[in-house]
Design brief:
- The complex is a heterotrimer of chains A (281), B (304) and C (324).
- With 281 residues, chain A is mainly α.
- Chain A has twelve helices and no strands.
- The longest helix of chain A has 38 residues, at 176-213.
- Chain B has 14 helices and no strands.
- Chain B has 304 residues and is an all-alpha fold.
- The chains are: A mainly alpha (281), B mainly alpha (304), C alpha/beta (324).
- Chains in contact: A-B, A-C, B-C.
Chain lengths: 281, 304, 324
């Protein structure tokens, strides 16, 4: 199967891109130093200025230092939010889908309640209630993602529960936790994996969008979205201030999406080639 | 049809609950209302008194009902920023957002579906590959960045379109394009995969065996079947557009609900936030309802 | 004996699979004829190429990856393999019609039965709405549907398996074809419904003077419905003749094996003799006879020389050492 993984161009491209960005995020801050240090004599410098690989922003801060730290923030927020959402959502979905009955009705109604709501709106409202900062972002994104994941997991579990091997296990008298862990969970892992990658991407964009409008990570923390917003006024002067952070966000989301697409192609056993179809007629 | 009536009732319930939730969330944090209205030298007792006067110490449900009563009567309160009557702002802002959102939705389906069909019919050619990769990229681009890119390209460099504000059709082009971008990309992908999936179904073979032309099969039969999943997710598209409108209106200075809401949150202008977030919640819920109704109408299995 | 020209004459047809790393023939040098007013059964196990053969008559095979690599299919004086796309289209559904195995998935779920039927009518004749509807209702009645007006307005998901198959038959009958190809039309249906559908097909053939090419793996069906039969194995026709002749005196060892493996009422289980071994895959075919590894009558030349289809007695056989 690993060979097939390597053949999948999307997966490879996504992993390659993602690794580059990840490395930048991990190692960058160590190389580039303090993101908050201002040099009021060296403001708005372009890429390639000696000493400042990516240039500087309006307060003379090293863009490279800020961008690489910003990567960390985005990734930490996105991954932690998604991790919480996946765990919570999978649990909720498992319970709703396996236990069914009244429990399911209650859970499903709550899910439908939140389901159609745009992430950003929820986050904005959370910011209105709690105040700006990373906390409302994490809360809002986490909640909406949990619900979305729970919904899908529930659907899958419902489908799997009806299949013969589960019915057989149930009638064999196996205990519920055992059935769930040994039979159902392995079958939903592929779906959950693909979903996680999608929602990591969603979380990255949400965090960036919120920082862009001013809600989200507050200064001096260098959020990539906020950097784009700051740089927006200086497009003619030094467009790198907006282009680089924006480009990095794009690269992060693209790599995660590609990985997700690649994973889905890889794990979907229902994919059959035209050859097989034709011959099997 | 009873399904739709049931849905409508549930939707109404949902509306009430959502607006209550929004209302409560904002009111409960409203300690700062006093900070905005009273001078900094006000004592704690003064604040308590003020609260009582405004009615902030009554139970939330009561406050909510009072608020609703006021809304129905047209008294939407005043903005804390400039004390303007919200009711006079409301129509203008809502109208502007509807124009922008409407244009975006038209583009999402009017551009997305044909492009997806094109990609499916030219499967595995360079045309398909380019359409597909552009849509993958389209989904990954954060739309505020896309907005900046688009402004830089079409406005600053080429000078074709204005970069901000509102005025005529020219002003609408860039913002609605940016707003629709992700929706278009998603619709292209969905249309393409649905068309391809349906093209390999057994019923297509039967239609061919009956002697129908390829184009009739494609445009009448395969398309009709492919539209189902697209319609089923149309509600999500509406929600998505509402969400992104917050950002897009801000960037392009489009004077709609999104822009005023974001400013309101930043400035802690609670009456503004209260009312306009309600508007958006209503739009999202109604949009979902319309999409569900559309799906039921489109799917013969549910019509009977 | 006056023999008129056959309705459909397939000569030396080969259909190959051409994909990334593979290229082999699924159908090999198949020759078949169907005469006017007759029912020909095309018999064989799954994978023997009978469906692909049938599909390629109307160019309905999935191309890519399947391609007709040689041979001709002559209908009404024209070689169907050489027709342009629009010429082929005018043959499909009007001269030659086809029905398929799984009726539940073979009807477009978004359209009513009536809409599908009238579409088929409009595809070949410029008629008005009323005439087309009449044609549709007539076809439904001919297919044995009891309440045509009601079914006209129903959607496929509202129909049972048997009714959907009748709708498919109606679809095939609308433009009054001369040849109906039926690919395992009853395999997916209940046993009781199977018999009804087959009877109906037989009646239709007689009443309309329509020939039927019936593809099946069920010898019982062959015996009750068909006039002539052709047995296929590993992409080739190995025996062909009148049903009564072949059943009475099968000549190809595979045919004998097939008949010996059919349970008969009153017989004991020990009377069943399965054929040992398995069907060779298309990419592992021997140079000589495809059946050689499973044949109890194999001669030396069977492994190296591929036998040709020849007349022997009252039938045609492809064998170096036929029975009897």
């Amino acid at each position: 199967m690993f060979r097939r993984a390597l053949e999948n161009k999307q997966l490879v491209a996504g992993l390659a891109l993602g690794t580059v960005v990840l490395l930048l995020g991990i190692i960058g801050p160590f190389i580039f130093g303090d993101y908050a240090k201002q040099s009021l004599s060296m403001t708005h410098k372009p890429v390639g200025t000696p000493g400042f690989m990516f240039g500087t922003d309006g307060l003379g801060r090293d863009l490279a230092a800020r961008v690489t730290f910003g990567i960390r923030i985005s990734l930490i927020v996105a991954v932690s939010v998604t991790a919480i959402a996946v765990i919570a959502g999978t649990l909720v979905g498992l319970i709703a889908g396996y236990v069914k009955g009244a429990v399911d009705t209650v859970i499903s109604s709550s899910i439908d309640f939140v389901w159609g709501f745009p992430l950003i709106l929820v986050a904005v409202l959370a910011a209105a209630s709690i105040g700006s900062g990373l906390v409302p972002v994490i809360l809002a994104v986490g909640m909406v993602n949990t619900v979305a994941i729970a919904r899908v997991v529930r659907g899958e579990v419902l489908g799997i529960s009806e299949r013969e091997f589960v019915v057989a296990a149930k009638s064999g008298g196996y205990s519920t936790p055992r059935i769930v862990i040994r039979h159902i969970v392995p079958n939903i892992i592929p779906v959950v994996l693909v979903l996680s990658s999608y929602y990591v991407a969603v979380a990255i964009i949400a965090e960036a969008s919120l920082s862009f409008v001013g809600l989200g990570a507050q200064p001096p923390l260098p959020s990539l979205g906020q950097m784009v917003s700051d740089g927006r006024n200086f497009l003619r002067l030094n467009h790198w201030e907006a282009t680089i952070p924006g480009g990095i966000i794009f690269a992060m989301v693209l790599s995660v999406s590609l990985i997700g697409d690649g994973l889905r192609d890889l794990l979907d056993p229902r994919l059959r080639t035209a050859v097989e179809r034709a011959v099997n007629k | 049809m009873t399904a739709i009536v049931k849905q409508a009732l549930l939707t109404f319930l949902l509306l009430m609950l959502s607006s209550l939730a929004v209302f409560a969330a904002i009111r409960l944090s409203g300690g700062d209302v006093t900070a905005a209205r009273l001078p900094a030298s006000a004592t704690a007792e003064d604040r308590e008194l003020f609260r009582e006067q405004i009615g902030l110490n009554k139970p939330i449900l009561v406050q909510y009902v009072n608020y609703l009563g006021k809304v129905v009567r047209g008294d939407l309160g005043n903005s804390l920023t400039n004390n303007a009557k919200i009711s006079s702002l409301a129509t203008e802002k809502i109208k502007n957002s509807l124009i922008l959102g409407g244009a975006a939705i038209v583009m999402v389906f009017g551009v997305g579906i044909p492009l997806g069909m094109l990609a499916a019919s030219r499967r595995n050619t360079w045309l398909d590959a380019s359409i597909s990769s552009v849509s993958v990229a389209g989904m990954a681009v954060p739309n505020f960045w896309l907005a900046l890119l688009v402004v830089w390209l079409f406005s600053s460099t080429l000078g074709w379109f204005p970069s901000a504000g509102q005025g005529g059709f020219k002003y609408l082009v860039l913002p609605s394009l940016v707003l629709a971008a992700e929706g278009i990309a998603l619709t292209v992908r969905m249309t393409r995969s649905a068309m391809l999936e349906n093209l390999s179904q057994d019923f297509v073979r039967t239609l061919r065996a009956s002697g129908l032309s390829e184009s009739r099969i494609y445009f009448k039969h395969v398309l009709r079947n492919s539209l189902l999943p697209i319609i089923s997710l149309a509600g999500l598209r509406v929600g998505q557009i509402v969400g992104y409108a917050l950002v897009v209106e801000t960037i392009f200075g489009w004077p709609g609900v999104g822009q005023i809401l974001v400013n309101g949150v930043l400035r802690r202008d609670y009456p503004i936030v209260q009312f306009f977030s309600l508007v958006l919640v209503v739009v999202v819920i109604l949009g979902n309802l319309a999409a569900s109704a559309g799906y039921v109408l489109a799917n013969p299995r549910l019509r009977k | 004996m006056i023999t008129e020209a056959p309705l459909l004459d397939i000569k030396d047809l080969s259909v190959g699979l051409c994909a990334k790393n593979v290229a082999y023939d699924i159908v090999r040098n198949v020759g078949l004829t169907i005469n006017h007013n007759e029912i020909l059964a095309l018999v064989g196990e799954s994978g023997c190429g009978k469906s692909v053969t049938a599909l390629s008559i109307l160019q309905l095979q999935m191309s890519p990856p399947l391609f007709i690599t040689s041979g001709s299919i002559v209908y009404d004086g024209r070689d169907l393999t050489k027709l342009s796309k629009s010429e082929m289209r005018s043959v499909r559904g009007s001269e030659i019609a086809m029905i398929f195995q799984d009726p539940m998935s073979s009807l477009d779920p978004m359209f009513t039965v009536g809409a599908l039927l009238t579409s088929a009518a409009y595809a070949h004749q410029s008629v008005g709405k009323d005439v087309a509807e009449k044609m549709a209702l007539e076809a439904l009645a001919d297919a044995g549907i009891e309440d045509p007006e009601r079914r006209f307005n129903e959607y496929p998901f509202q129909l049972s398996g048997g009714v959907s198959q009748r709708v498919m038959i109606a679809l095939a009958l609308v433009n009054k074809p001369k040849l109906l190809i039926a690919d395992e039309p009853t395999t997916a249906l209940d046993v009781t419904v199977q018999a009804q559908i087959l009877d109906r097909l037989k009646e239709l053939s007689k009443n309309r003077g329509m020939s039927i090419m019936l593809i099946t793996h069920n010898l019982g069906v062959v015996a009750s419905v068909a006039d002539r039969m052709a047995v296929m194995y590993a992409g080739e026709v190995v025996e062909m003749g009148a049903v009564s002749d072949v059943f009475d005196k099968p000549q190809h060892p595979y045919t004998t094996g097939l008949l010996g493996a059919v349970p008969r009422l009153g017989g004991a289980a020990s009377d069943l003799t399965p054929i040992s071994g398995r069907v060779p895959q298309p990419d592992e075919l021997p140079i000589g006879c495809a059946f050689v590894d499973r044949c109890s009558r194999a001669l030396v030349q069977c492994s190296t020389i591929r036998p040709i289809l020849q007349v022997r007695g009252r039938a045609e056989v492809r064998c170096h050492n036929p029975v009897g």
